Amino acid sequence: MTRLRIATFNLENLDERPGGGMDFEDRLAVLRPQFLRLRADVLCLQEVNTHPATKSGPRLFTALDRLLAGTGYEHWNRAHSLNRGGVHPSDKHNLVIVSRLPIRSHRQIWHDLVPPCAYRPVRAEPAPAEAQAVEWDRPILHAVLDLPDGRPLHVINVHLRAPRAVWLQGQKERFGRWLSVGGWAEGFFLAEIKQAGQALEARLAVEEIFDSDPESLVVVCGDFNSAEREGPLRIIKGDEEDTGNGHLAMRMLVPLERSLPENLRYSVIHHGRPVMLDHILVSRPLLGWYLGAEIHNETLGDELVSPATVHGTPDSYHAPLVAEFSPPQP
Prior knowledge:
By secondary structure, the chain is an alpha+beta fold. Helices cover 22% and strands 28% of the residues. Strands 5-6-2-1-18-17 form a 6-stranded mixed beta sheet, with no helix packed on it. Strand 11, helix 3 and strand 12 form a beta-alpha-beta unit. Helix 3 packs parallel to helix 4. The longest helix is centred in the middle third of the chain and has 32 residues. The termini are close together. The mean pLDDT is 95.
């Protein structure tokens, strides 16, 4: 293997039974060329939905199977996240890693390294008598892949919560309108806790890897719902400018979009504003193999404006990212 390409793509509710007037065949026609263009060896996917084959049968990734059919990815190795009980995939928003490389092991991390926070809302009506657990909405997926020379490659797939206020009892109407600014503010505060907590758990997973081997090859990919200078990404990066300790510089994760011109660094358009919410972060040893990155954002629509003007759009409002590396040859 002279080249290694690692990609991340939020598919935004990939589902063979889509709602909102969307046609799944239209989605396939739009998404397949995007997958072919990636020419990836490892795919980190977010928001992949499942359906049971029968009422009590296993949940199957039929939409993903149909999307990958005929692309060359369909028979590759896979790892995916599970529901809270760890029994089967969730109906919605699963994480999936698709790999040409063998998958040595994989695990999902969901409050395994960071316990839920306890918080008693002050604006909820009626107010709870005791503190309640604030749990993350989704897990983190960690897979260990075997490189041709036998070394392990750690791939961590994340989808952090979007900074949208959490529902609060008695403070929000069914159609999404908040009844008070204080209620919205507390809901937004809880969303920030969830997002930062997920980021901390991802960082602690990286710390475990480095504790085992400081020279580990690590890549953290996904939809961070966070720009580089915002809190969640800073938590996962572990920049020496934040720690103030140059001895820890080897533990920093490097955002690869830094190598691109600033005007190209966006994976989402939000109300006319290009923002970089999806990222590929790598450890310093893996950075030594780095050749370049691409953000396929040429066809992006505005995630707020387009749904109001385009009926049943088949696109994702996230651009896929891909990074290319040149591993040393055995």
